[in-house]
Amino acid sequence: MQLKTLKALLPVEAVQRLADWRRQHPIWSLLIVAVAARLLAVGARFVIGTDEGLFLTLGRSLASGLGYTGDGRTVQIDFPPGFSLFAALVYALGGWPELPSQLNVLLFGSLIAAPVYWLGRHLATEQTGFRAGLFVALLPALALAQGNFEAVAEPLYSLLFYAGWALLWRGLTRREAASFLLAGGALGVAHLVRWEALVLAFLAAGLIVAGLRRAAPVPATAFLAGLAVCAVPYALFLYTHTGSVLSPKTQITQWHAAALDASGNDMFAYEKAYTAYEAYLANPRHPLPVPALPLSGLLQRYARNLVRQAWLWLTSVSLLTPLWVIPVLTGVIGLPRRRALFLLAPLVTLAVFPLSVVDPRYLLPALPALMLLAACGWNLLDEYLPVLRVEIAGRARRWPLAALLVGLTLVVYALADVAGPFLFPRPTEYRTAGIALRGLVPEEAHIMARKRQVPFYAGVAWEWLPYGTLDDVLRYAAAHGARYLVVDGTTTPDLRPQLAPLLDPTSAPANLTPVYDSISEPRVIVYEIVS
Question: Kindly report the CA angle at 259 between 257 and 265, in degrees rounded to 5?
């Protein structure tokens, strides 16, 4: 009995038992790995991002009965409400301010591994599915939920999208009407989180028609019915407030891009044009004034942004593209054409984004599809790469080179996951300032700041900090009912240079009274505007 117990404690036996459990419970294995990889991301130096602050404020407004508004005055029609509805539910149940974002990364981000595993298993092999699931569980950009710094709703969107995509493949291969209905529903909910899901939903409908042909009417109808459950109410919401069923997000990004185009090299172009955006939100039935560009100008913008996007793919340390680009290309070549096209379809929006601007967050939803292709590529490389003879602890074993390279890739991913929370910039000073202001400023107060974190953590409304002189800022504050002003050593010198003298409280005029000063660098100072 003692010999058996000792044998069971040997590392070889433990590894074998772990491998057996993995084979019996592949999805649970992936979820455990994914959750473990994300624990640091939601714990160490955690702080919400700028846009994230708006989504969470919208959720807080919904939970408190104010409606879908970020400032208590205007309806926020340019951002889909899906993530904010989730945040509202969390807040209504008593969750703390950061909990929706933490669940977004930890729970939704981890669950993406499940549909990815299912797709890999049914498009190729079980090993393909498990490898793809591990890539999704550990890839730094997905584990840390960031292309460079912040993501907002991308984990939730990706989970919904790939669940819908897996259901779509199930429907195409098994001809089950229920699968098409659920696929449409999943993509409909995804559309409530990010607008491009609707584009991919119509692409999915085209795949149904092309794949099933004469048998397509019933499945296509079921799919569109599931899609309509969420898409139609949202379209009615948009039509009520804007007079159009189309999301205004595309128009706003084009306006943003046009402002940059018209400014030449003016880095403050967007800052100066923000008042036009505010006017549009106040009266969204009047379109934003988007300057018309000749076709040559549009093509130049597209080419420029395409190069920037490609450069971002190659240089972002959280994407680690050099480790997986060759397997992805191998997977595209090695998979049967129909299956390769099915995995390439989610990348369609990557060709659309450069029409306006480039943002690292836009790349995140494409990564699970690329990891699936990478897993397929590694499986193909298994057949062509040599087998090495490796001696470990006096035992000689034969290891496929492809398996060793996959293991090395996963080790690099895991090391980056551990280092990432400490390497990427985290404006924790904003969090500290906001929490310190609780109780110091009234709950109904409005705080002007270039970034949203300080007002969000303080539990009060955020107001835009206009680009201009201090007199311009004070006039804007009076017109918008703002009583407080935030300057900080990170953004003020670059984005609001006219206000940089306020980083020294002794230089502030008499009508600005400091109510918070971090003193330590990077400095954050909050002034009360007194009359």
Answer: 95
